[in-house]
Amino acid sequence: MKDKNILLTGVTGVLGKGLVEELLRHTDYRLFLLVREDRLTAVERVRTILAARSLEGYSDRVQVFRGDVTKPDCGLPADTVAGLTTQIDVFLHLAALTALNGSIDDCFTINYDGTGNALNLAWKFHRGGRLARFCYFSTAFVAGSEQDYCSLEDSLPHNPAHANYYEASKYAAETRVRSAMEKGLPVTIFRPSIVVGSSATGEVSDFNVIYPFMRLFTQGVLTTLPSNPENSFNIVPIDFVIKAALAIAWQAGSLGKTFHLVTRSAPTIQMLIDSAREEYPGLPEITIVPLASFNKQRLGMQEQIAYDMIAPYLGYLNNHLTFDCRNTEEALKGTSIDFPSTERLFLKKLLHYAVGAGYLVLK
Description:
Layout: E1 5-9, H1 14-26, E2 30-35, H2 42-52, E3 62-66, H3 78-85, E4 90-93, H4 104-128, E5 133-137, E6 150-151, H5 165-182, E7 187-192, E8 194-196, H6 210-218, E9 224-226, E10 235-237, H7 238-249, E11 258-261, H8 269-279, E12 287-289, H9 301-310, H10 314-318, E13 322-323, H11 326-332, H12 344-356
Parallel strand pairs: 1-2, 1-4, 2-3, 4-5, 5-7, 6-13, 7-11, 8-10, 9-12
Helix pairs in contact: 1-7, 4-5, 8-12
């Protein structure tokens, strides 16, 4: 597929940056990047991303548009929308607030309303132009991490059990995407689990989700964890998510389907603690207690504050979600892409990179 035009949102996020690099280095596609301005202009933000990854030589294949997914037409002027309608072949919608402690207003404004605005734009591109596919990046935890449940790829549960507003807003957003798919929009949905560093090196551009927990543990701030040592947490290396999503996105048979981008060998909490101690024997002790008997008020003030920080993440450490992967398994047949192993060796790579980058400072 040469000479295709790809529109992406969310390119300043961890996964977005990785997708931009993969598309520039390994395809001939032209990228149209919709970027929100903050302290820097949209162009400056993209230049920073390209420079950090030594991608300046590919800038002739990149066009940047100032936008905002929380606004109608994602903040694009009418003449820009008209011009893009005749150009865009594939729309990758990644923009989202992924903070598990995000407020209900922020999560639903960005994740639900933002997805609605992206869908409206996609309809214009599809009906009036040549858009052949809208790819939506959901989450493997869309069913809600506070339940014992097998999440099916091509459906959503009627009674989700969400641990935070992030999960709830992504559930609502995916419901919206599925409605558009049923009405004829060509859609593919991806549900990655917790995206962490590279399978080869552990490298990651931002330390999110599981990393703050590791930092509190290594600093000795977190001494008690309400969970079970054998509970697992589903993490996936970023390179697997990127390569699998792009391999599946170009398959004609993937239209109208959902794909779990997860590991089938999820590490346990005890495995993480043991792996860390094997590499760094001087780490402080941590006691794991059953959730039912945990009482935050028995903790010291500093640890109570730390617990409040990680409370939105605890669903990921106490859930028993499993994932149907039949669509993903079938789509990856014949490719060189395998489901990732994320156990001891991989955990140690994540730890080594975080220490080398200065995120984890060991005493």
